[in-house]
Design brief:
Layout (H helix, E strand, L loop, with lengths): L5 E5 L4 E6 L10 H16 L5 E6 L10 H6 L5 H19 L5 E5 L3 E2 L1 H7 L3 E5 L4 E2 L13 H8 L1 H7 L8 H6 L5 E3 L4 H9 L7 H14 L5 H15 L2 H11 L9
Parallel strand pairs: 2-3, 3-4, 4-6, 5-7, 6-8
Antiparallel strand pairs: 1-2
Helix pairs in contact: 1-3, 3-10, 5-6
Length: about 260
């Protein structure tokens, strides 16, 4: 199958690379990209030859978060449409989180907002030194809604609350301390570091790996349909709030929002 915003390549060992491929927009997540990721996850689950998945990205940035033009389109939408659009993002994150194969994040650049959410659904994340991170939504009058279950599960509430609401940018060492990153390496060591995470799975029984991953999720924080529906409604509510309208309008108009005036 041909995709517009992602690529999937699999080597002869069964190592698949799922590449976010919207470099000109810093791999920002729009509706179509979310649908493509959800679709490819289903295909990966059905492909018995795939043993491990590496989540990577093209260009300078890993993922800049949600596409703000897509967000802006929701301002004039009906509540029903807002809910449906928010579910596209939520369903994509849920699909990645419940992927039956190990998912290793290969972070070659900055990740903000939804990009941190993408990192949080990975089993292991390796990033390059110098990459910056942040839950930057509140700077725009938005909230980290649909990513929140995964960010909280990964970081823990106490650590998450240090950066969840402030939109503060932080570096790799702090991301390691927050448990967002497993390892921080020099750019020329990224490929080798990811390979070190891939290799053990090629010696493990794939069925047992899938069962063990499911067990870990089952015994961890519950992220079920009721939690997802709650976050979807929170995002839809936010899209209806004047603060979000002001924040995103200010971004496109290249001016300060009124809370900074």
């Amino acid at each position: 199958m041909t995709y517009q915003y992602i690529r999937l390549e699999t080597d002869d060992r069964g190592v698949a690379t799922l590449m976010l491929d919207r470099a000109d927009k810093h791999n920002a997540l729009n509706a179509e990209m979310c649908d493509e990721i959800s679709s490819v996850v289903s295909a990966i689950n059905m492909d018995k030859s795939i043993r491990v998945v590496v989540l990577a990205a093209s260009g300078k940035s890993f993922c800049a978060g949600g596409d703000l033009e897509w967000m802006r389109q929701q301002f004039n939408a009906t509540r029903q449409v807002r809910i449906a659009e928010a579910k596209r993002l939520a369903n994509m994150l849920f699909a990645l989180n419940t992927l039956e194969k190990p998912l290793i994040g290969k972070v070659q650049g900055n990740a903000f907002g939804g990009g941190v959410g993408m990192m949080s659904v990975c089993d292991v994340v390796v990033a390059v030194e110098g990459a910056k991170f942040g839950l930057t939504e509140t700077k725009l009058g938005l909230i980290p809604a649909t990513i929140s279950p995964y960010v909280l599960a990964r970081m823990g509430e106490d650590k998450a609350r240090r950066v969840f609401m402030s939109a503060r940018i932080f570096g790799g060492k702090e991301a390691v301390s927050f448990n967002l990153l497993s390892k921080l390496v020099a750019a020329d060591q990224l490929d080798d570091a990811v390979e070190q995470e891939v290799a053990p799975y090629l010696n493990a029984a794939p069925g047992a790996v899938a069962r063990a991953k499911m067990l870990a999720r089952a015994l961890g924080p519950k992220i079920d349909q009721s939690v997802i529906d709650f976050t979807v409604n929170q995002l839809a509510d936010c899209w209806e709030d004047p603060e979000a309208h002001e924040g995103i309008s200010a971004f496109f108009e290249k001016r300060k929002p009124n809370w900074l005036a």
